Amino acid sequence: MPKTKTVKDYIRTIKDFPHDGIMFRDVTTLFADARGFRIAIDQMVQPYAGQRIDKVVGLEARGFILGGAIAHQLSVGFVPVRKKGKLPAAVISEDYTLEYGEATVELHDDAIQPGEKILVVDDLLATGGTAAASIRLIERLGGEILSCAFIIDLPDLGGRTRLETMGMEVHALCSFDGL
Predict the structure, then answer these.
(1) Which residue segment(s) compose the domain that 167 sits in?
(2) Distance of CA 140 to the CA centre of its chain
(3) Coil, strand, or helix at residue 104?
(4) How far apart, in whole angstroms, are the C-alpha atoms of residue 179 and residue 165?
(5) In this structure, what CATH number is given to the domain that contains residue 95?
(6) What is the pLDDT along the chain (179 residues), one digit of tens a residue?
(7) What total number of domains does the chain contain?
(8) Whether this model's pTM surpasses 0.90
């Protein structure tokens, strides 16, 4: 009998991308496989079944793919956090530091109402910079973050610790050691 595949089995690793020494964890192979994608979404939704969640916030860009599917499964709204300049209406912004520079994320200023229960979703947790900046945006609008959910955690880069230090609950379906 063949071994049942796990989410981790569907993820491709690309050596030395985008720089030498980096092991890029590519979730597009997971997304392209109907069974793998279904397993990932089901497992990401499972911890929140029966909880009151008002909106899923997906982080650009793979968090949109996951967030939309998760919001659909939970029958709640979806809100995108975008890179600077991509949202058409009034926004609030948050600058943050990346491992290779600086960036800004934005959220429509009317996307979340005070007291709404929020689930933050993205594909990968590395340093936690994008997630932390997004959390600060959500909190500025009065959203209450229940949890942050990822497919992959890269524990050696410290993102989980960073988010947990902010008081966040973090779920990840799998982890990979190293960069």
Answers:
(1) 51-175
(2) 19
(3) strand
(4) 21
(5) 3.40.50.2020
(6) 778 999 999 999 999 998 899 999 999 999 999 999 999 999 999 999 999 999 999 999 999 999 999 999 999 999 999 999 999 999 999 999 876 789 999 999 999 999 999 999 999 999 999 999 999 999 999 999 999 999 999 999 999 999 999 999 999 999 999 86
(7) 1
(8) yes
Domain annotation covers residue 108: yes
Catalytic residue among 25, 62, 82, 160: 62
Q: If DSSP codes are grouped into helix, strand and coil, which group holds residue 119? A: strand
- Name the helix (H) or strand (E) containing 148: strand 144-153
User: d(Cα 179, Cα 169) in Å, to the nearest integer?
Assistant: 23
Residue type, 138: I
Q: What is the 3-state secondary structure (H, E, C) of 69-97?
A: HHHHHHCCEEEEEEECCCCCCCEEEEEEE
99 catalytic residue (yes or no): yes
Instruction: Read off the amino acid at residue 158.
Output: G
Residues 12, 35, 38, 99: which is the catalytic one?
99
Place of tokens 């590519």: 26
Helix residue ranges, H only, the chain: 28-32, 34-45, 62-74, 129-140, 159-165
Is 136 an annotated catalytic residue?
no
**Dihedral pair phi/psi, residue 101, rounded to 5°:** 155, -150
Q: Hey, which residues does 172 pair with through a beta bridge? A: 150
